[in-house]
Amino acid sequence: MTAGLTLAVDAMSGDHGAAVAVPAALDVLTSTPDLRLIIVGRGDVLRPLLTGADPGRCTLVEASEVVGMDERPQDALRRKKDSSMRVAINLVKRGEAAACVSAGNTGALLATARFVLGMVPGIDRPAIVSAVPAAHGHTVMLDLGANPDCTADHLVQFAVMGSVIAADLHGIDRPRVALLNIGEEDIKGTDEIREAHKRLAGAPINYRGAWPARRSTTGASSKATTFSRATWMSWSPTASPATSR
After folding, report:
1. Residue 82 pLDDT exceeds 80
2. Is the pLDDT of residue 64 over 70?
3. Is 191 helix (H, G, I), strand (E, B) or coil?
4. Which of 131, 185, 207, 231 is deepest in the core (most CB within 10 A)?
5. How many other C-beta atoms lie within 10 A of the C-beta of residue 164?
C-alpha cells in the first residue's frame, strides 16, 4: 500500500510540535522501507532533529510560520500562508506528495485542505475518520467531529466515503454500511436521519440499515458519523465477518 508513497509531514503543529512529530516520522520511515517523507517546518528547529536521516528518503522543506492550536481556522487560512500546515498541503496540491500528515489544529487543517485542494466531485464536506476496536476487528467511523451538523445528503456521502475506505484501503469485499441512530425502526431519529436512511437504501453500497450505537462495536456492521448522525463500517482480519452475508 505504501509502494513509492511520499508524504508531507507538518512537523511544527500540534501540542508538542517537532519534538514529537519528527522522531515519530523517522520511526515510521525506518519501519517502512518504500516510504519517502518531506518534513515541513522551521529549518532551525528541524535540522538538528533530522541528523542521520537518509537524505534520499527524507527531505526538508522550510516554512516560517506555525498554526496555533487555539487559532481560528479562518485566521490561519488568511494570515499564515507560509505555515508548516499550509506548505505541506501545497506540496500535495503540486503533486510532490500524495498526502499531508498533521497533528495540528483540526479546524485549520480541514479549512486549509478544503481551500487548497478542493473537494472530490459529489462530496460537499470533509469528514474525520477513525478505526474503533470492535468484537471481530474494527469499525471505521465518520464523521468524528469535522461537522457539527449534517444534512441527509452529507450522511449519504459519508456512507459512500466510508465504504470506499474499507474496500480500497482494507481490502474488504462489499463492506457493510449502517447509519448510526437511536434505534433500528424507520420512524426513529431526526428528519435528516430518516431521509438519509431512505436514500441509503437505494445507494450502490452494501447498506444494512439504521443501527443503535451499541452495535458499532460488535463487528456486525460497517460505518458511522458522530452526534448520532453517523454511518459506520466494520471489518475483521478474517474474510467471513468482513464480507457481506
Report:
1. yes
2. yes
3. helix
4. 231
5. 14
Return d(Cα 21, Cα 24) in angstroms, integer: 5
pLDDT above 60: residue 237: no
Instruction: Tell me which amino acid residue 24 is.
Output: A
- The residue length of the chain stands at 245
- Summarize pLDDT for 126-155 with one digit per residue, the tens: 999 888 887 777 788 888 888 888 899 999
Q: Is the pTM of this model over 0.85?
A: no
Helix (H) / strand (E) element for 219: namely none
Q: Mean pLDDT across the chain, nearest whole number?
A: 85
Give CA–CA dist 109/106, Å, rounded.
5
> Which residues lie closer than 8 Å to 168 by C-beta, 6 or more apart?
none
Of 206, 217, 212, 160, whose CA–CA distance to 188 is shortest? 212
Q: Which residues pair with 35 in a beta bridge?
A: 5
- Confidence at residue 90, expressed as pLDDT on a 0 to 100 scale: 98
Do 32 and 26 contact (CB within 8 A), yes or no?
no
Structural domains of the chain sorted by starting position, each given as residue range(s) with its CATH number in brackets = 5-117 (3.40.718.10), 130-242 (3.40.718.10)
Cell digits for 178?
A: 449502517
Amino acid at 140: V
> Between residues 82 and 209, which one has the greater pLDDT?
82
- Which residue, among 129, 169, 122, 10, has the nearest Cα to 76 in the 3D structure? 10
Q: If you write DSSP's letter for every residue of 116-134 in order, what string do you get?
A: HH---TT--S----EEEEE
